Amino acid sequence: MAVQTKTDTFAALRDCFATDLAALIGDQSPRGATPTAFIDLVEEVRDVLAASSIGSWQDASEELGSAVAYLTDALTSPDGDQPSLLAWARTHLWDGIETAS
Question: In angstroms, rounded to a whole number, what is the distance separating the alpha carbons of residues 54 and 84?
Answer without folding.
Answer: 31
